[in-house]
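Next up, sample data.

:::
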Amino acid sequence: MNGKEGSFGMKISSNNDVEGKLPETRNKLKVWMYKIWEFTKEDINRVTFSLKVGLAVLLVSLLILFQAPYQVFSTSIIWSILTVAIMFEYTVGATFHKGFNRVLGSLFAGVLAIAVAELALMSGPVAEPIIIGISIFIIGSVTSFMKLWPTFVPYEYGFRVILFTYCLIIVSGYRTGNPIRTSIERLYSIAIGAIIAIAVNTLIFPIWAGEQLHKELVKSFNSVADSLEDHSEFTNTLMDEFPDEPQYKKCRSTLNSSAKLESLALSAKWEPPHGRFQHLFYPWSEYVKVGAILRYCAYEVMALHGVLHSEIQAPYNLRSIFETEISEATNKAAELMRCLGKDICDMKQTIKSTLVRSVHSSSERLQRAIETHAYLLACSYQLPDHNSSISLPINGFSKSNQLAEFKKENEEEREMNSQRILSVSWESTAALSLATFTSLLIEFVARLDHLVEAVHHLSQMAKFQHESL
């Protein structure tokens, strides 16, 4: 469990182990260009997304640059450019979601602005600005409060659209004297921008949120599995260096994946059937549930690594007794994790009963080994008796000399006892670190049952292809 020869540890195997190093140059431009190149290589979709946004904005701008469409739409077409810039998101699903919020919010704000504007016109020139001002205050207060309501959090953008669209329409309509025409111009301009944004994002190299969610979950399975594999040697790294370890960096994305998975699942629900996900009402929420259970497993893995990196370690002769059982349990658990990730990746249902039984058998063998050698993990040491009497010589010393000699011997004995107690405490703590590691590993194997069940439920709801293993 430490860096000594023959100890067991954990292995992280990843394609990102060898990270690109910055070029050795003082030219800041070259360093900056190298960073951009590395950032692009990580995900080519970043370039695709950027180019698609530029294309969509260009297509909308052509309606202004060419004289014929500009005479039809006039300056209100600027709202189309604003719509494209705001609602064009990285994935198709996020664009549909934001487009729905914008279109529905704009439609509601337009109808409401027309109604209030007509009411203000009928009230006379004195009351008209007062009614409009009061309505702006009410709309601003209500929409700001509603977007904070937990149920309406996914539609927070829609409430912001209602607020600024209503204010712009009713104020500009008040100055032009024709709120109905102003509202209609804003609405069809927004519709043009939304149609162009959705068409470009969906038809030209689409980036699907569902596919991103699928890959992210599979990646998390492989990350946790990599962190469980054995390694013949283990670097001697202490807790202060632990955050820089590859094991920690690899699992950190899994531990912090909750918000990302939920966001992708929400966007994926708005996407039409595509790619491998052809049937309607695909169970994207089940991916989030599987990811939540997987994170609990990742917590256990990080706890195991924490024990491996602690300063107090069990002696080698004690660790070697359980080395075979621990290696077998971690290897079997990692194999099961990879099998579950592969099932999700290939969208297949494989019968893993044999592998699951093998994992439990390895855990049971580890438990039996602990029970057999429990006395080694709970060694007791005979401490000296503090209540033992010490006889003092009567003849040959004065009373003061006898007392001084007694105090000296008593202090020496207390110092020796303190050293013995410290040694016993250290040895007990070292044995306890091994017991902690084995108990965490057994707990991890127990959690795998919940993970297997969650993946099986996902495969049934998503209608994965059934195969035998």
Remarks:
- The chain has a mean pLDDT of 77.
- The two ends are 34 Å apart (CA to CA).
